[in-house]
Amino acid sequence: LGGSISRALQQMSNATIIDEKALNDCLNEITRALLQADVQFKLVRDMQNNIKKIVNLDDLAAGHNKRRIIQQAIFNELCKMLDPGKPSFTPKKGKTSVVMFVGLQGSGKTTTCTKYAYYHQKKGWKPALVCADTFRAGAFDQLKQNATKAKIPFYGSYMESDPVKIAVEGVERFKQENCDLIIVDTSGRHKQEVALFEEMRQVSEATKPDLVLFVMDSSIGQAAFDQAQAFKQSVAVGAVIVTKMDGHAKGGGALSAVAATKSPVIFIGTGEHMDEFEVFDVKPFVSRLLGMGDWSGFMDKIHEVVPMDQQPELLQKLSEGNFTLRIMYEQFQNILKMGPIGQVFSMLPGFSQELMPKGQLDSTNPKLMNDSRIMRIARGSGRQVRDVMEMLEEYKRLAKIWSKMKGLKIPKKGEMSAL
Ligand code: GDP
Ligand code: MG
């Protein structure tokens, strides 16, 4: 996907005359790429029309950086599409809020309920979980296990078959216990059906949630719009959570969910574990959708600190996963100048701050050098053994980070300023 967009932009810059046809060809290529990322056809078409209005052919012809102008326009347009224009209801710590989770079975509701509770608990909230899924056998056990692991109070029943009754009882109990975030997990069913939406309507009416969260699997593809709309028609969906962003799906369905519910995406799920949960951040999301990472920001940083003629080689080596001690030596000063390296890397998809090795470094000896060699290096360089060890630890730490860059598409020399 990233490849085809880069290609489209490349073709465009190769064209000597930028006319309407060249722009259209480019937009068509991008359209294909966005459809592949599960962005709904209608939304892609709207975007295409907007871009045509925004991008001024005269500007392009005047020799401004064409690719950058178009890329920026697409980027901004997608960001806008993810912004419904009004924030969602935000629960307040210390004040009771009821949050109801809805979504199809398997979308990740139960998992996400716990993540959401845990996220707030870590910030000092008093969350509680209510299992109003009486449809699926084992639903209560699953919630109970998650809740127990996170030490979050929970409510549910193995016997009761009325979801409305359980939801009401649970919410009442936790209100009395002064919980400030009462989370109601609901059933999903395998497909959209009348009974499910009627059940959601009843649970919502009985528990009067302050916020209804629609949970969407990032891989549902073009089905996202109808699904989100169907839920929105039965309950007042106020925000969206997109799960399984750790998988292959780019999550273009999120644009549909926002369009269908007129509510923002507020979190994303990035794994099966309790803490694999992130506040939604529109720019990295769109970068990923376009398959380009936040290369623009990353490249700007690199431009600032690494002399132009050294970049292609460095990036090529890093992308091949060849991070050697020599490269570290040669690039160390420049890399350091990039500021907190974590901040630079957080611009790339998959490099969230949490992924960075933190705190104490693993203090075992690097395998690649034995003690006598380390001592020899220390003597030869007039340093302490400890200094050499520290240097090797730093290498290991960086090597681990750089190794994650392996396979990332590296812009070629001429493309540098565009991507
Ligand atoms: P529910 O039927 O909507 O309650 O969905 P569950 O919470 O039971 O989740 C269905 C499956 O998706 C489970 O195997 C979860 O572990 C998995 N899951 C949920 N969220 C994520 C996520 O963000 N990433 C990954 N990889 N798996 C997830
Ligand atoms: Mg469930």
From TrEMBL:
GO CC, alphabetical: cytosol; endoplasmic reticulum; signal recognition particle, endoplasmic reticulum targeting
SRP54-type proteins GTP-binding domain span: 264-277
Subunit comment: Component of a signal recognition particle (SRP) complex that consists of a 7SL RNA molecule of 300 nucleotides and six protein subunits: SRP72, SRP68, SRP54, SRP19, SRP14 and SRP9.
Domain of life: Eukaryota
Source organism of the structure: Rhododendron griersonianum
Entry keyword annotation includes Endoplasmic reticulum: yes
Subcellular location: Cytoplasm; Endoplasmic reticulum
Main location: cytoplasm
Function comment: Component of the signal recognition particle (SRP) complex, a ribonucleoprotein complex that mediates the cotranslational targeting of secretory and membrane proteins to the endoplasmic reticulum (ER). As part of the SRP complex, associates with the SRP receptor (SR) component SRPRA to target secretory proteins to the endoplasmic reticulum membrane. Binds to the signal sequence of presecretory proteins when they emerge from the ribosomes. Displays basal GTPase activity, and stimulates reciprocal GTPase activation of the SR subunit SRPRA.
Family as reported in the entry's similarity comment: Belongs to the GTP-binding SRP family. SRP54 subfamily.
GO biological process, one term: SRP-dependent cotranslational protein targeting to membrane, translocation
Presence of keyword Nuclease: no
Catalytic reaction annotation: GTP + H2O = GDP + phosphate + H(+)
Keywords, sorted A to Z: Cytoplasm, Endoplasmic reticulum, GTP-binding, Hydrolase, Nucleotide-binding, Ribonucleoprotein, RNA-binding, Signal recognition particle
Database matches in Pfam families: SRP54 (PF00448), SRP54_N (PF02881), SRP_SPB (PF02978)
Name of the molecule in the record: Signal recognition particle 54 kDa protein
Entry text on domains: The NG domain, also named G domain, is a special guanosine triphosphatase (GTPase) domain, which binds GTP and forms a guanosine 5'-triphosphate (GTP)-dependent complex with a homologous NG domain in the SRP receptor subunit SRPRA. The two NG domains undergo cooperative rearrangements upon their assembly, which culminate in the reciprocal activation of the GTPase activity of one another. SRP receptor compaction upon binding with cargo-loaded SRP and GTPase rearrangement drive SRP-mediated cotranslational protein translocation into the ER. The M domain binds the 7SL RNA in presence of SRP19 and binds the signal sequence of presecretory proteins.
One Gene Ontology molecular-function label: GTPase activity
